[in-house]
Amino acid sequence: MITGKLTAKDCYNGLKKVLKRRFLGTPFFINLEVTKQCNARCSFCDYWKTGKEERLDDYLPLVKKLSPLHVSITGGEPLMRKDIASVIRRLREGDFVYLSLITNGRLLDEAKAREIWDAGLHQLGISLDFLDERHDEYRGIKGLFKHLSDLIPRLPGNGIDNLSLQTIIMEENLDQIVPIAEKAAEWGVKVSFSTYCSQKNLNESGKISGERIERLRRVIEELLQAKQRLGNILSSDFYLGKIPEFFEKGGVEGCLAGRKWIQITPDGGMKQCSEFPVAGKWTDYRSGFFKPTACAACWYSCRGEAQNPLTIKRILELNRTK
Predict the structure, then answer these.
(1) What sign does the CA torsion over 239, 241, 247, 253 have?
(2) How far apart, in whole angstroms, are the C-alpha atoms of residue 241 and residue 257?
(3) 269-271 and 261-264 as β-strands: parallel, antiparallel, unpaired?
(4) Tell me: the pLDDT tens digits for 158-190?
(5) Radius of gyration, CA atoms only, the chain
(6) Can you list the domains of the chain with their CATH numbers?
């Protein structure tokens, strides 16, 4: 049976990659956009306006060259690619790399979930920001919450043993954060959190400010307690603990974009991060290609978790099942 739980061999190969990355300076994490096309209409993103685009058919050569430990397959909406299972399967033909995929879930059913899981995913993530029809409004897809609330509880029983909700923390859903973690536990799945950022289209409606910062601090404290109680929250204490600071100060200093992680566009372009312009093709990459940046404008989980010290405790935490 295909499983998302890492074997002893996977952990050994992953450790070798960590050491190699430190020696050669290659990225720890790659955010791999396989398409910018999207069937959602999220208020914070304009990717849905993407028309015809150039895409690579085979991303394995670039993954071999960059040698990351973790590749997150994203979009746009990755399930807009009819060949997505082939893309995943091909990536598993190289050296060990942890493969995750994040989807809004509208195009997902049990058969599709099983197809992409059997292709070789280690983790499947589904976006969920509200536990009611507000999720439909926020993502611009009518009936999405009902579809997900019917589908998600059935997936663990279908052999998908590493499924996680992906939730954005923002002004509008502070009352939903702990309940989402509890609902995830009820469904038998995990949950990971990220912060609302406005860089994609400058929509600042989701930013938390003023007196709401104190409410956010209390929510994060409750979330850290829930993490111990529920055992299904993947976000690190390090990452969660800095979320109030990000909203209060408008940023977190010390970004390592381009060194610990990079963004790859559908056609193989390289970006220092998702909000930076394309700096070259993947074939141009070499150690030191990206220079340090003073940008502090986001606290996306791809940034924050990549900066989190990778301790043995953290590795075990990510690999546990409950």
Answers:
(1) negative
(2) 20
(3) antiparallel
(4) 999 999 999 999 999 999 999 999 999 999 999
(5) 18
(6) 8-319 (3.20.20.70)
